[in-house]
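Researcher: I'd like a structural prediction for the single chain below. Treat it as a standalone chain; there are no partners to consider.
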Amino acid sequence: MPRRQDLYLQQNFAVDYGHPSLTANETNDIYTVPSGRSAVIDRVLYVNPTGLATSDTNYVVISAICNGQVAASWSTKLTGGDGALVAGTQVAPTVSGTAANINAAAGQKIQFEVTVTGTPTLPAGAIRVEGRLL
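Model: Treating it as a single chain, here is the predicted structure.
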């Protein structure tokens, strides 16, 4: 792949965030875009060492939020979701193709969000957000 001409202006970043076991909705700030820079999310990865089965009544949606918009998410809902979280297996939620959902300006937050439906327990796990500072 040829090197992009503006690559020298970019800096890659990766943010890892480990969360405790969750039974309720939760949102946490995991990164603040530095002053004088903007950020673009390129990839999101999630792994849960214990795993979580699919269900239509007891499921979670795990999201990376950028500038208040869903940048990427994974749902364990049986119907219309993305699938189970298999123990110790990394999943790669699809990153949004909408620029407004993956771009953040200086000072804006990238967040980890879990939305719980029903009574599931999401065991402790970790999310990784990768992107570029411009």
